[in-house]
Task: inverse folding
């Protein structure tokens, strides 16, 4: 038992260290497969402990979605080449591995769960700190454009190399800190929450801003502190206003920019076009990039890699296109069970999980946050820690 507990702690720490590395520790292969240090850490964390967990409460909806996703891929296997089937299958395997983290964490003992919550504060703080270092010392990704990254001039993107995903994570981290502060009245959590607000503002991500308002409003309603929502809103709007007036200027920092909004329209149209041709089980989870080629759907051409080639900006359209109506219902069922499950947790976890889920569901309409690995992992860990 002692050896097993030691292994759990060791693997969990390695997992969170890999989380903080984000997209920096990433290897992109020419066949469309990309592997991150986080993927390897998750795989080891789950595989080495797979025989030590009891069935958690969300097992059924998870298994239902996995079954539908696997069936969608199996049905479409006749239309996929061997390499395409391999790439698509690895995406599903990765999703299962990340969900497996929830199975393992839900079986942690009570003391370990308390320590795990502290670990989350630390790793979030590391990502936050690296974000500020990046903002002042590495203000754009122009030199990594050949690897498929956008420039993001004068925006905070931390180790995620994308301000939208970084902003989404910081919103979830802020809500987590808020829950800890209201529960324990620890001044450190309060200070970190304020710094996180500044980080969210510096991403200049409008989807993250929307996530913040929706998540914060939901949190304050659940916690019974509705008046504080107005105070936080005034503080955040003031921060953004000051940054907009005195901060560095670029297309990305212009909150009225239309370029990114207009780019999401053809992305959504492509997903709907694929869905219309495969309405029941989609094109297979995740054979999206191969469906784009099969149906000759026009996408912006570039001689450099495209990190969004395997999906679309809207998470729900992504599920609809890859798993069809059946898959979308299975996926929505999973999220309704997550929110229902959270209602019966302790007050802190209940407020954090529900507000995080609602904000994430809203934000995923504009960026595929629901299938972004670090954010997915963060939610599975929170759900696992709240159980028991």
Result:
């Amino acid at each position: 038992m002692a050896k097993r507990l030691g292994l759990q702690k060791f693997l969990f720490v390695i997992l969170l260290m890999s989380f903080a590395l984000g997209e920096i520790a990433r290897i992109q292969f020419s066949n469309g497969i990309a592997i991150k240090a986080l993927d390897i850490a998750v795989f080891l964390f789950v595989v080495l402990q797979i025989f030590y967990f009891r069935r958690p409460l969300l097992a059924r909806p998870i298994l239902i979605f996995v079954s539908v996703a696997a069936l969608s891929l199996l049905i479409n296997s006749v239309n996929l080449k061997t390499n395409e089937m391999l790439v698509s299958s690895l995406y599903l395997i990765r999703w299962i591995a990340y969900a497996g983290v929830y199975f393992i964490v839900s079986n942690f003992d009570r003391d370990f769960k308390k320590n795990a919550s502290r670990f989350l504060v630390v790793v979030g703080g590391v990502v936050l700190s690296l974000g500020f270092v990046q903002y002042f010392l590495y203000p754009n990704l122009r030199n990594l454009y050949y690897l498929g990254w956008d420039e993001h001039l004068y925006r905070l993107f931390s180790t995620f190399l994308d301000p939208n995903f970084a902003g989404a994570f910081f919103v979830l981290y802020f809500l987590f800190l808020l829950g800890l502060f209201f529960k324990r009245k620890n001044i450190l959590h309060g200070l970190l929450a304020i710094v996180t607000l500044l980080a969210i503002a510096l991403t200049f991500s409008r989807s993250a801003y929307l996530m913040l308002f929706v998540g914060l409003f939901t949190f304050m309603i659940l916690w019974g502190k509705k008046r504080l929502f107005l105070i936080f809103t005034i503080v955040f709007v003031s921060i953004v206003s000051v940054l907009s007036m005195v901060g560095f200027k670029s297309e990305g920092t212009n909150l009225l920019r239309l370029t990114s909004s207009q780019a999401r329209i053809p992305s959504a149209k492509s997903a709907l076009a694929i869905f219309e041709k495969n309405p029941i089980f989609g094109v297979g989870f995740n054979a999206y990039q191969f469906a784009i080629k099969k149906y000759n759907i026009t996408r912006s051409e570039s001689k450099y890699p495209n990190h969004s080639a395997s999906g679309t900006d809207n998470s729900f359209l992504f599920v609809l296109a890859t798993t069809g109506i059946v898959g979308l219902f299975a996926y929505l069922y999973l999220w309704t069970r997550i929110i229902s499950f959270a209602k019966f947790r302790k007050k802190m976890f209940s407020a954090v999980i529900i507000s995080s889920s609602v904000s994430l569901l809203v934000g995923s309409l504009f960026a595929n946050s629901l299938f972004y690995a670090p954010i997915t992992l963060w939610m599975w860990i929170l759900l696992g820690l709240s159980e028991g």
About this structure: The chain has 14 helices and two strands. The chain has a mean pLDDT of 89. The CA atoms of residues 88 and 287 lie 5 Å apart. Residues 2-158+262-386 form one domain.
